[in-house]
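Input sequence (243 aa), recorded before submission:
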Amino acid sequence: MAQPEQPHSILQVTGRDRIGFLQNLVTNDISAPGLHYTALLTPQGKYLADFFVLQRPDDLLIDVASEICPSIVMRLNMYRLRADVQISKTDIDLCCGLGTVPPDGFADPRDPNLGWRAFGRQEAGAINWPGLRVAHIIPETGIELTPERFILEMDFERLNGVDFKKGCYVGQEIVARMKHKTELRKGLRQVKITGSAPIGTAVLANEKPAGILYTQHGGLALAYLRFDRIAPEMVAGSAVITV
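Predicted structure, token format:
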């Protein structure tokens, strides 16, 4: 068992309005029991945060990267108004593992290759998260997932992080328009890499900006690319990139 790639905090949401309150804010349908992956967006449809929501009989747990936890609490409280909702940070531990899901665990809803998550355990081990993420094209909070991105460019549909049939939520109109009325021109892709370069290095194709290089592992990398500028061979710093 192991911890996530970066520290996570667990928030508890209580109150009789808790499900409807969160359902009206996030990209996925969290109304059913179980673990859900979802995101909170700006009114302009851009990424603010991604997290897991676990619906339990008497509360909701929000499993979120500690780095963005304070800003998420502030944002949720801003939307709370007069709703009967209380949001508090807990000392619940998070443990992750690969293989068979234990009785107290929940399969990672993003991809079956990412194993499971359990709340309340303290065991920790080693999981090669960068390798797993690169192999299965999984963006990470604060690395590939940054405030200027649109979630469909970050593969949230494939990662079961957005529901197009649920009711309105913050930023929903933009997400729906990108899904049904436009063709994506940029997105996250797995590439081959020879050499290495710092995360955030510009990818150049024929000396023109073509994207940004992110997580790298074992000769592969994740890159955010402009599809119309992808070339057979590109560069990122001293590294050579091929698709």
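Checked by second reader. The longest strand covers residues 208-217.
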